[in-house]
Amino acid sequence: MKINKEIAEITGLLIGDGCLSKYRSYNANRLEIAFTGHLKEYRYYKEFVKPIFIKYFNVKGTLRIRNEDTSTRYHIKSIKAFNYFKNIGVQIGEKEIVELPPIIKQKPYIWIAFIRGLFDAEGSIYRRYSKKYKNHTRIYDNLLVAQIKFNCSKEFIKFIEHVLITNKIKTNRITKIGKSYIIRITKQESIEKFLDIFKPKIKNAPFDKRAY
Cys-Cys link to 121, which of 17, 54, 138, 178 (CB 3.0-4.6 A)? Predict the structure, then answer.
């Protein structure tokens, strides 16, 4: 199956909020795709993510709310789906540093969809704030910031920067904290353009809530 925009968006989401899990259970190897999201994302998984797996892999998976931490969990036990994402370059297991799947870089027509999914997992939009001194209360203004922050390779974050610049979205200088790279958009007109072009499934800032 050739990768398309819908699959690319799910791939971005999987890289950010999911994993390919391979483990032993009852003396057998088990292959599973697992997503963990916020409680408020349950409808997002129900109405967007789950139908994609039904459409392309003929598998419903198990979608539930985990009471212990009130998170949304979506698990798919499908060899076909697992092998598909493994073969396009999604890493197996917990990812200390995330690498960009080569096929994504090779297909410009899926770049926007891929970053949309990644932003839904690892992105945020918030109001800019400042402090007069270290322990001072944050002072918020009406200016917004859009950012993506996660543990990835330098090549990966540079790819995101390239796609944004290609779409004439001005970004700040890439920064790094620990193993996490951060790319921010602070120009208000660039944030508006980002929302218009990439259309992340998240309501307008400063509220980090899904549109679903």
Answer: 17
